[in-house]
Structures are given as C-alpha cells and as structure tokens.
Design brief:
mainly alpha, disordered N terminus
C-alpha cells in the first residue's frame, strides 16, 4: 500500500494498517522475549551441567529440565510481556491512530513523543500486576514506586520496543515484505544472542555453589 496524504488513504491507514501493524509488532516482540528466556534456560543448563560439570545432577536430568522448563519459561515470558506492555502498547496505538488520521504516515513519529509516558505506564503495570512484591531474607522489604533508576531501565526497554514498532509500522505501511522479514529476523537473532549471553552469565554465577 503506497502512502499518500489523501483523506481516503489516511482513513484506510488509521483504521486498518495501524491497528493491525501494532498487534503484529507486539506479537513479534512477545515472541522474541519468550525466545530469549527459552535460550537463556538452555544455555544456562549447557554451561552448568555439560561444560562445567554439575556433580549434583545427571546429564539426563539436565536434558529433561531443558525439555520441560524451556516451554514453561516461554509461556511465562509471553504472559509477562502482555501483562506489562499491553496497556502501553494500546495507548501508543490509540495516539498514533489519531496522529495518522490528521498527519498521514508522519504521525508514526508520534510514537517517539509518547515513549516516556509509555515507560511510566509499563513500570506501574510491572510493579503492581506482576509478583514483584517480595521480602528478601537479608534485606529491606520491596518498596513499590517509581525511582529514577527504575524509570531509566524501563525507558530503555520501552524505547527498544517503540523503535521496533515504529520500524515495523513504516515497513508494513509500505508493504515491503522483504524488509519486514529482515526486521523480524534481526529481532529474533538479537533475542537469541541476548538469551545466550544471559544464560552464560547466570551459569558463571552458579559455579561457586557446585
């Protein structure tokens, strides 16, 4: 679909392409984060049990944990993404639809303006809708609320999500299927790399207990 700043094209874009593209991009984001968690679990077990050699667990048991725990991590990650980021994504979709209706495809860049607010909403969804309220044995109880450090972390995550969504929207609006495949492939590749790196880090942290 070629973009033209006409009333008919803009209305078509706002009613169909924007909303559908937001949903598709969000599904890819959820899938990539779930892949990262699954890869993290597999990488962790490979380093701990097969490379380092865990004396407390057999390799057969480790392989069984890969088969059983990886799908669990995958499902939990997807649920967590929807709990934390569904509302921010919805707010960005609504605001973008309004902007596109008035400004055409240039309204996509309104995502950048809404990102700081979306990060605040995402944090409070995480803070109050997920089981983050825990009391560590050797520290003070968890305190709800938004601090500068917490906001910056969530802003970084939300910015990454927004940049992918913006890229996906532009590609979807232009109907460039090859570019869309490259973008999704890049996202999943980064998810695998991040999951493997995280799994290696957590494995090294566990060596001292073996």
């Amino acid at each position: 679909m070629e973009l033209h700043d006409t009333a008919e094209r803009t209305q078509h874009l706002s009613n169909r392409a924007v909303n559908i593209a937001f949903l598709k991009s969000f599904m890819w984001i959820a899938l990539s984060i779930a892949v990262a968690f699954g890869v993290e679990n597999i990488t962790h077990l490979i380093f701990v049990d097969f490379i380092h050699g865990n004396p407390n667990r057999t390799k057969e048991n480790a392989m069984l944990m890969m088969a059983l725990y990886t799908p669990v991590f995958f499902i939990v990650a997807i649920i967590g993404v929807f709990i934390v980021f569904s509302l921010p994504q919805y707010l960005q979709a609504v605001s973008t639809t309004i902007l596109v209706t008035h400004w055409g495809y240039r309204g996509f860049y309104g995502l950048v303006v809404t990102t700081p607010l979306a990060a605040v909403v995402a944090w409070y969804c995480y803070d109050y809708l997920t089981p983050s309220d825990f009391n560590p044995e050797d520290g003070p109880p968890y305190q709800h609320g938004l601090t500068v450090a917490r906001y910056l972390v969530m802003l970084g995550i939300q910015t990454a999500i927004t940049l992918f969504t913006l890229s996906y929207l532009r590609i979807e609006a232009g109907s460039n299927r090859k570019a869309k495949k490259y973008l999704v492939f890049l996202l999943l590749t980064l998810a695998v790399i991040a999951g493997a790196a995280r799994g290696h880090i957590t494995a090294e942290g566990q060596y001292q207990f073996l």
